[in-house]
Specification:
It comes from Chryseobacterium hagamense. This protein is α+β, with helices and mostly antiparallel strands. It is 33% helix and 31% strand. A hairpin with a 3-residue loop joins β4 and β5. It is globular, with a radius of gyration of 27 Å.
Length: 397
């Protein structure tokens, strides 16, 4: 009897001991995970601590984050405090470009377009100098810089006749040159700070992919997988980028890392009313004068503008000089006008009077937010493009 009691006490002791060890191990693992998480956050902060800060637009910083795309610069991606700061940076840089070019226009006010263009070339005047200065201060290799170099080489190969714009680097799906100056070669940027954490956004024509940066190694792995789909440093360049299906498939192994794939382009609404439109083309005014035009009409769901529609038009100017087609600093215009409709019901909404911009430039854009989720019908909404008084209109849809 005594022997049985002793054995029972020993067994109870062992059971309690094992149970206590399991509870201790569980608590230890929990504490360890918490420390690891805190360490991960700390290591990300440490990694971004030595960033390069902008004085051109205070608050923006530049760092180097391996995304598998090699550059020659110290930094390859920008950090913005908020998504709104990303949008604000486009507006501020656009204004700096306007001020810089308006000042030069005063010097050439008495010249013809051809004289002004020749003079600008003789003094190496660059219309995008504010963007160049912004990138240089941040020691940043931007998507703009990369595409500009490719586009110069592309233009040098163009001859008379129609140009294949689907091979033009300037037709890349990120169409805004100022926005390109804010993006990495992979069309990426970061939002956040050490206190609130960092989120990476990767832009696509149809939307974006995003994820919280909790670990630098994992962030690199995700970006490498995404940039292996389509790489702007590989030629010929894919101007349309990766599809949503390709992106979703590439990030599937990282779904536990919180990667989200968001489509901001609505589905087509039918045959007579569209709310997501983009088109491009060229128009020859004479054997020695031509333009390349582009327009985009879209719901402004990125970065954070619900209830608005973004309308953008571009006019690029060219002339033949010494037997070669060159970008031409001429008096050009870009804009739009017409009737709009509601995005989903396709009911008549209102009329947009002619809105645009005329400048002596190689390239001019009009970027306008329209209030409401809007769409357009056929034969009622147009983009307008001019060069030296010659005008061309194109139906948006």
């Amino acid at each position: 009897m005594k022997k049985t009691l002793i054995m029972s006490l020993i067994a109870s002791s062992l059971i309690y001991s094992c149970s206590s060890e399991r509870e201790f191990d569980s608590e230890t693992n929990s504490n360890s995970n918490a420390k690891t998480s805190a360490k991960g956050r700390k290591s990300v902060c440490d990694f971004f601590e030595n960033s390069t800060a902008s004085t051109v637009i205070p608050g923006i910083k530049a760092v180097n984050l391996d995304n598998s795309l090699a550059t020659s610069c110290q930094n390859n991606i920008l950090i913005f405090p908020t998504l709104q700061d990303y949008e604000n940076a486009i507006v501020k840089l656009d204004q700096q470009i306007e001020d810089y070019n308006d000042a030069f226009d005063q010097q050439t006010a008495g010249m013809t377009d051809t004289e002004a263009d020749d003079y600008a070339e003789s003094v190496d005047f660059d219309e995008n100098q504010p963007l160049i200065d912004f990138e240089k201060e941040l020691k940043f290799c931007s998507l703009r810089q990369h595409l500009a170099n490719l586009d110069d080489a592309w233009l040098d190969q163009q001859v008379d006749g129609a140009w294949d714009l689907n091979t033009s680097p300037d037709e890349y799906y990120i169409d805004d040159e100022t926005e390109r100056a804010l993006l990495s070669l992979g069309s990426e940027f970061i939002v956040g700070d050490c206190k609130n954490g960092y989120t990476l956004y990767k832009r696509y024509d149809w939307g974006y992919a995003s994820f919280a940066i909790n670990d630098i190694g994992t962030a690199t792995d995700i970006l490498t997988a995404l940039n292996n789909i389509t790489n702007p440093t590989q030629q010929p360049i894919n101007i349309n980028g990766a599809t949503q299906g390709q992106v979703s498939q590439a990030v599937e192994p990282y779904k536990d890392s919180g990667v989200t794939v968001v489509a901001t382009v609505p589905a087509p609404q039918g045959g007579y009313c569209h709310s997501e439109i983009k088109d491009k083309g060229e128009y020859l005014f004479s054997p020695e004068r031509k333009i390349v035009w582009k327009h985009k009409f879209k719901d402004a769901h990125f970065p954070n503008f619900p209830g608005q529609t973004l309308m953008k038009t571009y006019t690029r100017s060219y002339r033949k000089k010494k037997g070669k087609w060159k970008k031409f600093k001429a008096t050009i215009y870009t804009g739009f006008y017409g009737k709009t409709a509601t995005a989903y019901q396709c009911n008549d909404y209102g009329s947009q009077s002619l809105t645009g911009k005329e400048k002596r430039r190689k390239k001019v854009k009009q970027r306008e937010y329209l209030l409401g989720d809007l769409a357009v019908k056929k034969n009622v909404f147009f983009s307008v493009h001019k060069q030296e008084g010659n005008s061309y209109e194109n139906e948006v849809y």
